């Protein structure tokens, strides 16, 4: 066994950082590599079988150019693409900004604010399908909870939410914000907690108060985290499925779908899996630059994902 | 009026106190708005579950005859969508715990190899994990469905477990790598001097010291698998193999379904993640400061 250790150990070029290690390390490096490979086998197997293979399979399914001709000539797809853009741009940015402001509220040290935070997190903890179905019930008829509340307060019947395309799309976006706001608020709370207190003290000595602290101290310090989180959230939201699938179910007349739900319906309800894959692949021209930007930002600023 | 008796100091103090009460009151009003905002859809689940079938869409804010009848139906599997409810509940638990166990196993081994054994190609694997982490899971759903048929795993709980482990492992590797940096390398080195091999270091030193990170990631993986819908719906099709999430969505196939039974089932289904979350909240919060959590 020692001979194999030797062989592998010598075959590897040494970097500067390795030369500082105690000498007995060098004898163990060969077996280290063997151990490391053995330890990595489960992950590499999972990665190859369930990431690489499906990705290649998906690329192959969506590789026929004629699919995109069919796709782009479908008016439902055009609506879907616009919806997705609206959903992502409005949903993510409003959510992130609110989360940033709310994190400032939740760092106030008070027992009832801490209790409120525990309740505020419930939407995030509950299964998406449960809460979105509940919202669907609130909106789908004129006898749901929301209309009942409007009737109880104003005495008039409330609107039918899922009849107008713009109202229904708004309902999707609000539901999405409702579900994911707590999580990002928590992320920003953690980021705010990491800011050293003496920076605020120094700013206070210089005469900064309230709003000025927020604009000139907190925001610049959190700008990197804010950008990286927004990028990450944008990428995830591009593939958001349960919100639309449960809240409006695409109603009225399949006009509020986003890419993921449109692709799902094409693949499993209408039986065109290739078209479904093509619909999701049509997001790649936006997705890939975003991923690259995110990776570079995260590396350059040292923000942990 | 007291300004005349105590000079300039008292009014400013009183002014300050009034202002503080005002701010506190504003905070309270704002908190109340947040409370209503957070709880409205959850309140809706509860009132629908407490209603009778005819009462569900009666247009009232509180059911006229609230009863726990729906919960009795769920517990006794008294409706045909719920025939296998407890079996499906067991399936959800099986998927959740297997996902948790395998994610911890695969993730901790990989992070140990990358972080502690100085593998030169480690960055490649970290980047591969990062790519998997950022890609939206729904984009892989259709090809995933196909390859599960190729693997002969369609309608099998293991196909869901495989999917969940795939999407949870990258996060596990991040958190473990971050947390692992706080464990001094000197511990590994002194164990080596004592003659321990990497496997012994992994079991005797690495895993015990990683306990908080293991709890954080374990909770995350369990919640992910329990709450996930899309993959479970695609990969599981018969009532005996379904998880609760899939069985619950069956109610949506018909407009005449008893929504009260559905929401009662939803409450029971939502209890384990609630308990888990509030039980392990401290660790979950620790996980957040170590890195992000994929919702």
Question: What structural keywords apply?
Answer:
heterodimer; A: 305 residues; mainly alpha; disordered N terminus; B: mainly alpha; MetI-like fold; 2 domains; disordered C terminus
Can you walk through the features of this model?
The complex is a heterodimer of chains A (305) and B (295). In chain A, 79% of the residues lie in helices and 0% in strands. Chain A is an all-alpha fold and 305 residues long. Chain A folds into two domains: 57 residues, no CATH class; 235 residues, MetI-like (MetI-like fold, Orthogonal Bundle), CATH 1.10.3720.10. The longest helix of chain A has 38 residues. The N terminus of chain A is likely disordered. Chain B folds into two domains: 65 residues, no CATH class; 216 residues, MetI-like fold. With 295 residues, chain B is mainly alpha-helical. In chain B, 43% of the residues are buried. The interface between A and B is large, with 99 and 101 residues.
Alpha-beta content class of chain A: mainly alpha
Beta-strand percentage of chain B?
A: under 5%
Radius of gyration of chain B: 26 Å
Order of helices and strands of chain A: HHHHHHHHHHHHHHHH
Total of domains of chain A: 2
Question: Gap between N and C termini of chain B, in Å?
Answer: 57 Å
**Average of the residue pLDDT scores of chain B:** 86
User: Which residues of chain A sit in consecutive blocks of at least 5 with pLDDT less than 50?
Assistant: 1-28
Enumerate the spans of chain B where pLDDT stays under 50 for 5 or more consecutive residues.
1-8, 291-295
Largest sheet of chain B: none
Order of SSEs of chain B:
HHHHHHHHHHHHHH
Q: What is the helix fraction of residues of chain B, given as a range?
A: over 70%
Shape of chain B: flat
Quaternary structure state of the chains depicted = heterodimer
The number of distinct β-strands of chain B equals: 0
Name the CATH class of the largest domain in chain A: Mainly Alpha
